[in-house]
Amino acid sequence: MRTRSASLAALVAAGVVLSPATALAAPTPTPSPGSTTVTKAGTSFLSATPIAAGQPVRVGASTGEYLYWSFTAGAGEIHEIDASVSPAEDRTGSSTWTVEVFDGLRRRQACTAGAQTPTADASVRSVALGCTLRRVRPWAEPWSVDPLPGTYYVRLAVVEVPERDLGLPIDVELRISATGDAGTAPEDGRLETPLVPPTNAGEVLEAVPTLAPAAEDDGWNLDLTGWLPEAGSRWIWTTAGGVLAAVAGVFGFALTRRPRVRTAVR
Predict the structure, then answer these.
(1) Which residues contact 106 (CB under 8 A, 6 or more apart)?
(2) Integer distance in angstroms from the first to the last C-alpha of the chain?
(3) What is the residue range of the signal peptide feature (predicted)?
């Protein structure tokens, strides 16, 4: 009994000693940069609402709308998207929701964990969605779809819902957490240029060019250059072809005409 008690005490002591190390080794979410809650979402990639890791999102929307958010990811980070949708209580049937992540080239990124497309019955009050992205790489081959540093887009929408439930109000909560530090997994390369090259805008002219003043017309100058067709226009070729056809017709008629024979009148 004393031996078992001593062994149990030793195991408990070892657990107490190892607990802090295990807690330190576990990944911790990036703290929120502020207590500001985002209360809006975009309806397309171009109007996506930018959010930061750890920033809470609470949005009221309608069933059937596409909701977009954007966030910035650095090399070596792993991002986890957690979303919750509260459908209307008076809905008539089950609904299927989905959360998707796209990179700057609008390429859909794969999720390694999380309920990406759950289905909720009519009696369910809340639907939980999740997506854990792969670790962002500092570089990748052009043909691959590996996640690279840059801007990413989150899209939340319903994919299957009864038609009569479209337009019903919903409440959406979303949070993005980032774990890992940039440079924790060094590789033999890095991204030198942006994934999407910036668009170069045109140059602004400092002075607006002015046209030379037109010569005064006193009414006696007869300019026919504007009425004459160009040298390569179809009117020139049509006229020349008609003249040549007329000449050829006259010449052919002259060749085939029979001479008249005069008969003597007695």
Answers:
(1) 45, 153
(2) 170
(3) 1-25
Phi, psi of 226 (to 5 degrees): -75, -20
Q: What is the DSSP letter of 45?
A: S
Mean of pLDDT values over 242-249:
91
For the residues 119-129, what does the mean pLDDT come to? 91
How far is 72 from 51, CA to CA, in rounded Å? 8
How is residue 218 written in tokens?
């006193």
Contacts of 18 (CB under 8 A, 6+ apart): none
Give the pTM.
Answer: 0.59
Cα-to-chain-centroid distance, residue 1: 69
Let me know if residue 240 belongs to a domain. no
CA distances from 168 to 62, 89, 94, 98, 107 (A): 5, 9, 13, 17, 30
For residue 66, what is the domain's CATH number?
A: 2.60.120
Domain count across the chain: 1
